[in-house]
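Preliminary data (for renewal application), iron/sulfur cluster complex.
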Amino acid sequence: MKSNAKRFVLADFSPAGSTRKIGIYLAQKLSQTSGLPWEHRPFTLPKQRQELLGFDEDSLVIFAMPVYAGRIPSLLLPYVSQMKGEGAKVFLLSVYGNRHYDDALREMESLCVHAGMTVVGGAALIARHVFSDTIAKGRPDDKDYAALDDHLEAILDSFKKGKHVSMPGKEDLTYYQPKGVSGESVSIISVKPATKSGCIHCLQCVRSCPIGAIDEEDPSQVPGKCMKCCACVLACPLKLKHFDDEGFLSHLGALEEKLKERREPEFFLF
Ligand SMILES: Cc1cc2nc3c(=O)[nH]c(=O)nc-3n(C[C@H](O)[C@H](O)[C@H](O)COP(=O)(O)O)c2cc1C
Ligand code: SF4
Ligand code: SF4
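Predicted structure:
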């Protein structure tokens, strides 16, 4: 490693946990292989975003985000656009649910360049699709981790070289348009989770929501904007939170029908 590189920093947004899981695996392995320590800088929860993201030139950053509609989650754009890189080198990790990452890596690249960082590489990894119990079930799995292991040296080498690597995706970033089972266009923007009766007011859903959308007084209500991240669905110990919107369920049916073929991790390195 270059002499001024002092640490790896994993900066991740991960409402349902898969991006964090893959990011931590990568940070730990890079740390073990290089002998440098690593730090965690999550920005999933509102309180973790009270401070802006900031890195210095001693940091080797792993910037990790999930793919939502072929890009990064749009509600995070105002926060991520303010990040400051101060000459740090960054490796991008895009995690998606076996459909495609489309323009997400390209968008992450442009945000990091705007923040003053050098993008030295990136990867697109697959995790279970949070909407579904079947799409990419069990992923990341041993084969995914083995792919990361196989690329550790090359990732370290890209950090060492410190050269900019362009990411795939369209310059004119576009959002993926969801379709239903009959190919009809579906809009899920205003969809929010419903809550079955029997709430014990444990507030697990409230605490898990990355945008503080759920009412603390009455957790069955979601007055704020919802990003459909499913964190509350996974957090509720009684499994009361669910999506029952017709368009959403039709889109889910279409995805489950289409996404049966396994996609593999991809790496973009110098
Ligand atoms: C609103 C939303 C949109 C998504 N759009 C895509 C997509 O365009 N392509 C894809 O392959 N997966 C998509 N996914 C699946 C997520 O990328 C995947 O489940 C990811 O693991 C979630 O990350 P997390 O577990 O760190 O929260 C979407 C998930 C959500 C919640
Ligand atoms: S209310 Fe929406 S944004 Fe909040 S945790 Fe639930 S699905 Fe995610
Ligand atoms: S997690 Fe479930 S039980 Fe707990 S407050 Fe939320 S809806 Fe109610």
